[in-house]
Here is the input.
Amino acid sequence: MIGKVENVSKSKTGKSWRVKIGSEYYGAQFDSNIEGATGKMIDFSFDDDVKFGKWVKSWAYATNAAPQPPAAPVAEHGGEHTGLTEAEMRFISNVVRQAILAKTISTPLEISVWAKAARMTLKELA
Here is the structure.
């Protein structure tokens, strides 16, 4: 099956993972390393155990997953829409992050300037 890993958390007993894939919950062993797949599409198989429910047997990142529909615009603090998609917001965030990691910028004013410049770049490319 192919599905998106929505959430991974410890089970109530603390002995395994509780994994939400799409709208279904599955169990998974800690050594499955599925916690790194949060937010990603995976191709997986599972067993339906009578006692413990559905358990992820094996998984891999999906290579031919159906494309995701475009994201709705992301809201700012005031609840107003920016008019940017999630991918565009991610681009701006990545540009700013890389500038911070390179120690090119550090103050809130510099961050604001870089974010605005990245947004203007997106508009020019559109």
About this structure: Confidence is low (pLDDT under 50) at residues 67-76. The radius of gyration is 20 Å. The chain has two domains: 2-61, 86-125. The first helix runs from residue 86 to 101.
